[in-house]
Sequence to fold (269 residues):
Amino acid sequence: MAFVPRALTIAGSDSGGCAGIQADLKTFGALEVHGMSVITSVTAQDTRRVHTSSDLPLETIERQIEAVIEDIGVDAVKTGMLPSAEIIDVVSEKVKQFQIERLVVDPVMVSTGGDPLMGQEAVKVMKIKLFPQALVVTPNLQEAEFLTGHKITNEKELKEALEEIFELGPTSVIVKGGHSTDLNQSTDHFFDGETFRLFSEPRIDTKNTHGSGCTFAAAITAYLARGLDLMESIASAKKYTTEAIRHSFPLGQGHGPLGHFWKYWQSEQ
Fold:
């Protein structure tokens, strides 16, 4: 049998199946990667909001990571919802122990419905311990503002934010453009310490974007696991996520999910 790429997501569980672990595993499956998961927190979540959440014990999180990596191994790892400083500390230590090089850090701070998912102390520890180990950090515009402590209203301020986040230690940063005011294009801004680069795709007019940030970061992870380099992975992930948004659908009373398996739906028509 041919080698199957292996991708691990370390994140929270979304009971509504739109974001978090569920979106990550759907993305891995759609991109023909064997997906594995380490659950950090269990949320009671629907398409409207996160109603409540319960963090798993630190030992359980630690054992999940060890079980997956020691037996199956990983080709790329993505982190999502890491709700406490203690959880981030455990995850960062395991990333260091297992010498994970292809690490995508998605600093999930606020849910699509606007609910905070991470406190100030957790953000501080993430900056110090996890960012320096990341191949790429993938905040959205709102998260970039939270990380830098100032509003981003124009191109100059966005470049300054990219530089500021890069100075925290990751190999590169990409600020996702889904929350920008451009009605025609969704443009992600990338910086690796030397080069600024834009990744643009048409903006899809829909409110059903629940889990789009998770999906984009997971897609980068999947393509890295498949052996693509970082630029190829980001470009391919941008295209995949745009089409998943194009094939999103209404579900529930809030923001519906993406159509992660759009390629297969298309081929069956």
User: Anything to note?
Assistant: The longest helix spans residues 230-246.
